Amino acid sequence: MLFSNVFLPTALLAAQAAAHGAVTSYVIDGTRYPGYTGFSPAQSPPTIQRQWPDYNPTMSVNDRKVMCNGGTSAALSAPVAAGGKIRANWSQWTHEQGPVMVWMYKCPGDFSSCNGSGKKWFKIDQQGMTAPPLSGRNWGTAFVLKNLYWESTVPQSLEPGNYLVRHELIALHQANTPQFYAECAQIKVTGSGSAAPSGNYLATIPGYAPQSDPGITVDTYGSKSTTYRCPGPDVWTG
Ligand SMILES: *[C@@H]1O[C@H](CO)[C@@H](O)[C@H](O)[C@H]1NC(C)=O
Ligand SMILES: *[C@@H]1O[C@H](CO)[C@@H](O)[C@H](O)[C@H]1NC(C)=O
Ligand SMILES: [Cu+2]
């Protein structure tokens, strides 16, 4: 839920923070990696996850915070073989209308200088609505609410290198008021792949779609639509 912050007592603000969520750990090629579990700067040990300041949603696809929930750096990275699995884990999640989208970005060099700029982001996985109605529970985020994880496969043919992986949930429970929740981790893809996405598979973040895109600005209770298309490019499978 998003409320206006004006007039709300502190206890309610705390409840509001508790009602959202963020990726708090990962399982990558079978190894568990902690993420941030408190708000940064937290007393967390070094992680593979780019630190994020709070559970609050980003309200615009054009806000730079939408990239990695404001996170810009992390001390560690995790190896993953092309074709391997990445599981993101949320310690809490409360919304069940909206898509899950998993993106990657190839860093031009070191993680420390990798800022996510340019039209280089691509999707490796997504799930929007699998069956109507829009107001129902047949959504990627409903799976996350129930299971508190999302697992994706790194495309088998993807060329090795330093990548960011970005897990994005869009909460669509408020009419025409989308909420974006995205966190990033640093992964080192290994293997002998030589493929890279190009053209229509690539997007910039922020701004991977217009805010007015029907996959972003939608009234999931009022709309009579029986279909939903995830915003942004198609998934690249290699
Ligand atoms: C996610 O992480 C939390 C906190 O570390 C843990 O309690 C929970 O079991 C994990 N859930 C999954 C689905 O791995
Ligand atoms: C991001 O990194 C690229 C390449 O390292 C650099 O050219 C660019 O100026 C940086 N952009 C920002 C906004 O920091
Ligand atoms: Cu929320």
From TrEMBL:
EC number: 1.14.99.56
Domain of life: Eukaryota
GO MF annotations in UniProt: cellulase activity; cellulose binding
Pfam families linked: AA9 (PF03443)
Cofactor: Cu(2+)
Keywords: Carbohydrate metabolism, Cellulose degradation, Disulfide bond, Hydrolase, Polysaccharide degradation, Secreted, Signal
UniProt xrefs under InterPro entries: AA9, AA9_LPMO
Domain named Auxiliary Activity family 9 catalytic: residues: 20-228
GO biological process per UniProt: cellulose catabolic process
Signal peptide stretch: 1-21
Role description: Lytic polysaccharide monooxygenase (LMPO) that depolymerizes crystalline and amorphous polysaccharides via the oxidation of scissile alpha- or beta-(1-4)-glycosidic bonds, yielding C1 and/or C4 oxidation products. Catalysis by LPMOs requires the reduction of the active-site copper from Cu(II) to Cu(I) by a reducing agent and H(2)O(2) or O(2) as a cosubstrate.
Official protein name in the record: AA9 family lytic polysaccharide monooxygenase
Biological source species: Decorospora gaudefroyi
Origin organism lineage: Eukaryota, Fungi, Dikarya, Ascomycota, Pezizomycotina
